[in-house]
Amino acid sequence: MGSGMSRGRRRGFGAGASGGMLPLLALQVLIEYGRAGASRPPVTAALLAGNALIYLRPGALDGILPSVTRVSFNPRLIVENGDLVRFFLSPFYHLSESHLFYNMTSLLWKGIQLETSMGSVEFASMVAALLGLSQGIALLLSKGLLLLGDYTAYYDQYAVGFSGVLFAMKVVLNAWSEDFVYLHGMVIPAKYAAWAELILIQVFIPGTSFLGHLSGILAGLVYLWLKRALNGPDPLTLLVSSITKVVTWPVRFAQNLLWSAHPQGRFRGRGRVGRRQSARDTPRGLWRCPACTYDNSVSTDICEMCSTAREDHDFSLRQYHQAGGTGELTVDEIRRRRLQRFGR
């Protein structure tokens, strides 16, 4: 949640004449994902694209997607009517181009850092958990204020936007940071930046959803507490990981087929030249020459590349010594025998 509906009704919603902020947002995304060595986290990219498409509503999406008035977060309608559409979809709707721009630039910066450090599966499960927690806490707070002091303003408020999740992500990102940040002329510890930003946004932009932003901060704190309490991968991460494995199984199966069809190493005749490996790493049916690392068939006891005797075959080794072999070849001798072999 981020902005109240009153601002949205004045400014309009959806595809209209761009004020230049969306091209600037696209440029920032291209710069971040186009940098050499960039990690290019896919979940962050999907979230950016999804929020932008919902706001622009291009082509057939305009007739498929529900309107902003249908999905706006309203505690009364969600509690009394069980309207889960408002609960789950309201974070992905934005009221204006500037609303979308500021939220998505924040998501771009936070998402890349968190997804790169956590991994895509855990990051996706974290975003889902933070979304559910922030929305649920907003419901509890608005209902609690109504019961305690008859504060109907929060209970009847309409709000949309991804900023509740972004506040939660800020809490997670800065939880163990010892750095300081510069925020509107103040230097404060990074771990308290979300609280300072909560107050400053409310002072400078009164139309924003204070309860939604506060719920995001509390959701981030609850998420960190649950992570410490569980002391391991949370069930949602395991679920996302399992679904990912099932979905990507055909791709991994095709990759295994390609690798098996193109084994590593340089083939020559009936053997191949590979790295120095232990005997147990050598493929079955072959033995690796200790002098030149050529893989020979077990049917022969003398290396086809450099004529070194097979060390693990006692009878052939004795036979080779009786023929005048020493079992040890110099580098020059190996080079001479290779040239002699391929020069024939």
From TrEMBL:
Gene Ontology CC terms: membrane
InterPro entries: Peptidase_S54_rhomboid_dom (IPR022764), Rhomboid-like_sf (IPR035952), Znf_RanBP2 (IPR001876), Znf_RanBP2_sf (IPR036443)
Membrane topology, from the record: Multi-pass membrane protein
Gene Ontology MF terms in the entry: serine-type endopeptidase activity; zinc ion binding
Main localization (coarse): membrane
Superkingdom of this protein's organism: Eukaryota
Residue span, RanBP2-type domain: 283-312
Entry keyword set: Hydrolase, Membrane, Metal-binding, Protease, Transmembrane, Transmembrane helix, Zinc, Zinc-finger
Pfam families cross-referenced by the UniProt entry: Rhomboid
GO terms (BP aspect): proteolysis
Family stated for the protein in its record: Belongs to the peptidase S54 family.
Annotated protein name in UniProt: Rhomboid domain containing 1
Native species: Zea mays
